[in-house]
Design a protein that fits this description.
single chain; alpha+beta; globular; Arc Repressor Mutant, subunit A; Jelly Rolls; 2 domains; 10 helices; eight-stranded antiparallel β-sheet; about 300 residues
């Protein structure tokens, strides 16, 4: 890693969706020596980004972290506790609890890039990105490391047009990461293909009621086995997964459009705006109107 100086930067989120489909909202690099405290006390991150190993945290944004030197641990509820070292990349998903730290014996050098936008959201909806596959052990990857270094250079220098440059580089990074992770995972099993196809179909049909037994028949698999395999890979049942897709889509529409709750409910196939409001509050803890006000105020 050529960028040895610790830094972090948070960039403003645009009011309008990026034409690139992806916006860099933060970046940083940290070197933790053996026995060093983590997170380091000299960095004053925003309160919603601070965390301790004991409590962990939940972000409202995407982050990609790369370990350049040393080793440590990463944990989320979908992945469980995972050992990581130089060449490990892990993705932090919006709304998913996680924590990570270096091994006190080795410390580590890590860097992160924070994103928002429709591209990672859609990849998640279609099952291309999933919290159970958040940790990728790649080993030395000069191409990916070079792209990440370039992002950090631009995030610190912020030349004219830096927002577009960062967006384009991030798309390249995400595509490269997906390609490398697919190569490292070996040949897929048939059930893996079935689950990915199910996730894709559910993402395409989020605006209409779904009978999961009918979906299993369409995929040529018994429903009980399908439901167990789907839960095993995603952590939720197919029905819960479909409900989460609709709620994430509702959140996106509340954040990026001026549609009324009634219009959003109709577009997403809810029985009524009251049904949407009840489901939304049950999953987020706040009604849609208050959630929208908070996001627009940021």
């Amino acid at each position: 890693m050529t960028l040895m100086k610790d830094y972090f930067a948070y960039l403003p989120r645009p009011r309008e969706p990026s034409v690139w489909g992806m916006t860099v909202t933060g970046a940083g690099l940290t070197h933790i020596p053996p026995g060093g405290a983590y997170p380091p006390g000299h960095f004053r991150h925003p309160s919603d980004h601070m965390f301790t190993w004991e409590e962990g945290r939940v972000l409202d944004a995407w982050q990609m972290l790369m370990i350049h030197e040393g080793r440590g641990w990463f944990e989320s509820r979908p992945t469980g506790l995972r050992r990581c070292g130089a060449g490990t990349v892990f993705l932090l998903f919006p709304g998913v609890w996680h924590r990570y730290r270096p091994d006190p014996k080795t410390g580590w050098t890590d860097s992160y890039i924070e994103w928002s936008g429709v591209v990672p959201d859609r990849l998640r909806e279609r099952g291309v990105l999933h919290p159970r596959r958040a940790v990728v052990h790649l080993g030395p990857q000069p191409e990916l490391t070079g792209l990440v270094e370039r992002v950090h250079e631009i995030a610190q220098d912020r030349p004219a047009g830096h927002s577009g440059l960062l967006s384009a580089l991030s798309l390249h990074i995400l595509a490269t990461l997906l390609s490398l992770s697919q190569r490292s995972s070996g040949p897929p099993r048939r059930i893996d293909d079935v689950i990915r196809r199910a996730q894709s179909l559910l993402a395409e049909r989020y605006d209409r009621p779904q009978r999961m037994s009918a979906l299993a028949r369409e995929l040529g698999i018994g429903y009980s086995y399908f439901r167990r395999a789907f839960r095993g890979q995603t952590g939720v049942s197919p029905k819960q997964y479909a409900a989460q897709l609709r709620l994430r889509r509702a959140q996106s529409m509340l954040r990026t459009t001026s549609l009324t709750l009634k219009e959003i409910a109709a577009e997403l196939g809810y029985h009524s705006p009251y049904h949407l409001s009840a489901e939304f509050k049950r999953h987020t803890g706040v009604p849609p109107s208050r959630w929208r006000q908070r996001r627009q105020a940021k």
